[in-house]
Specification:
alpha/beta, binds adenosine-5'-triphosphate, five-stranded antiparallel β-sheet, globular, binds magnesium ion
């Protein structure tokens, strides 16, 4: 593999309760994502997928303690600088309703991100926000700018969340089950949108999903987690064709073969 865009090596995360022993959440996790590719992270509920993304985004819970051997970003060792510097990473959450401020209009959310990351305000910021909404396939974006998050449908809200993440001009987009809360037709539309944006912008993506159909459709490589550890990683086609771990075989057995064959792998 060539130089990774983002790599973390030897990541441990513990939750430190007020009393008693720390609880291990992640152990010795390695993740390396090549520039312009999509890494899928799969594994059963509680295996640590969200905590891995939160460690990358520096949004671990207060009680969490993190330790790692090395972090690489765009070919540079940023292990020492990681907590001080802003790296161009942005995140899309499973439920955008919880990550928007309910009292703030969509336009306010977007122009704040534009002010912060692109240093532009006023009419130009408005215009960029409208363009961003258009780019993610939101019809009548001027109207949506004036709406509150709860006034949008789930699919439109997820599109707006993706637009907001991209306005931070990330090189790496991290997504935690971005389609799980949506119904099947809308899921397919959001996946197609993510795929188009990834290809058009050459984004590097880390996407957590419990759906191996999503991995087949969108991802180049996949990392399988279990009990806070990586149990398998590799090219999607290789892992699906010849899973090395019993655990991965079990995951694979749970989905229809057509979904895998119809995908990108
Ligand atoms: N805020 C928190 N405080 C304490 N422990 C937590 C917290 N969030 C998660 N955990 C614990 O960390 C472990 C990993 O959780 P995580 O949310 O990363 O799993 P996941 O793989 O994302 O699961 P799911 O597929 O259900 O989203 C679990 O044992 C969970 O109970
Ligand atoms: Mg999760």
């Amino acid at each position: 593999m060539s130089e990774p865009m983002l790599a973390v090596r030897g990541l441990d995360v513990d939750i430190v309760p007020p009393k008693g022993e720390p609880i291990p959440i992640l152990r010795d996790v390695d993740l390396a994502v090549e520039r312009g590719t999509v890494m899928g992270v799969v594994g059963e509920s509680g295996s640590g997928k969200t905590m891995l993304l939160r460690a990358l985004m520096r949004i671990l819970p207060d009680r969490a303690k993190r330790d790692w051997h090395q972090v690489i970003f765009d070919g540079a060792d940023v292990t020492e600088r990681f907590d001080r510097e802003r790296l161009p990473l942005a995140m899309v959450f499973q439920d955008p309703l919880t990550s928007f401020n309910p009292l703030r209009r969509i336009g306010g959310h977007l122009t704040e991100v534009i002010a912060r990351f692109q240093h532009v305000r006023g009419g130009e910021a408005q215009a960029r926000a409208v363009a961003a909404l258009t780019d993610v396939g939101i019809p009548d974006p001027e109207r949506v700018m004036r709406q509150y998050p709860h006034q949008l449908s789930g699919g439109m809200r997820q599109r707006a969340m993706i637009a907001m993440a991209l306005l931070a001009e990330p090189e790496v987009l991290v997504a935690d089950e971005p389609t799980t809360a949506l119904d099947a037709t809308i899921q397919a539309q959001i996946l197609a949108l993510l795929h188009r944006l990834q290809v058009q912008r050459g984004l590097t993506v880390v996407i957590v999903t419990h759906d191996l159909g999503v991995v087949a459709a969108l991802c180049d490589r996949v990392t399988v987690m279990k009990d806070g550890r990586v149990v398998e990683t590799g090219a999607v086609a290789d892992v699906f064709a010849d899973p090395q771990q019993e655990y991965t075989r079990t995951l694979l057995a749970a989905i229809p073969a057509a979904e895998i064959e119809g995908g990108r792998a």
